[in-house]
Amino acid sequence: MGASRKGETQYVTILVQPDGALQARTIRLPLWGLRLALGAMTAVVGLLVFVALSYAPLVRAAARVPSLERKVARLEQDNARIRELAAALDSVERRYDQVRGMIGGDVMPALARGSSTLPLAPPVRANTSLTRRFPSGASVPAFWPLDDPSYMTRGRSSNDPDGPHEGVDIAVATGSIVRAAGGGTVLDAGQDPEFGLFVLIQHPDDYQTLYGHLSRIVTRKGAAIEPGEVIGLAGNTGRSSAPHLHFEIRLKGAAIDPLTLVKQEG
After folding, report:
1. What is the pLDDT of residues 122-139, one digit of tens each?
2. Is 39 helix (H, G, I), strand (E, B) or coil?
3. What one-character-per-residue DSSP string does 81-141 give?
4. Short-list 209, 258, 251, 206, CA closest to 229
5. Which range marks the domain in which residue 45 is found?
6. Is residue 118 part of a domain?
7. Is 5 contained in some domain?
8. C-alpha to C-alpha distance for 180 and 144, rounded to whole angstroms
9. For residue 158, what pLDDT is reported?
């Protein structure tokens, strides 16, 4: 390798001696051209490194997609099983109500307590008034959303120290069935910081019902809901200090007192 004299265009001479050949090949390059080629190669290598670093997160994210899709599929299967169980539970409850209605009166007659020294349990009476009858199709809210014994712990209030309370809070055990107070369409269902797991149903005549703090949702957004259909299970999610159901009724977007339309049964 050599260079020309100072003051002239500088060249770099490269001698290439192939194996077994008697003569060497001479390659003569201007020094500025060699520097330009080295600079271009450095830029290309730098660009390749930048592209590799930029696409690495995308490649990792793409690798996670199949795993996420499998998880979503499993969750959809779980929700489908829950809906099937809820439907089966409704069927069992209807049959139980039919049997209870056919029996009527006292299931066990009262016994003379003086005839035995053993303690006797009080007679069990079939209360046919508890039998629920729901119409079909979309309807204005008119049914109590809970089957299990429950009691109100907080009513609707506009001057509460913690802010307006637009519905009623009903204390009930976690896992208790929550039913639609009327027929309609699920406007929204999911997670909310305030209400936790919730379901919002659109009814005719601009009525809406909201069910909050659920432990499980067994319906989905856009689903058609029959009156009395199971939509979830009561719980303690969101801003809640104890298991209960937050129940709201709205008319044209404004909350109204649910007790003006729905009365607790039993």
Report:
1. 444 444 344 456 888 999
2. helix
3. HHHHHHHHHHHHHHHHHHHHHHH-SBSS----GGG-SS--PPPPB--GGG-----SSS---
4. 209
5. 11-16+23-62
6. no
7. no
8. 8
9. 62
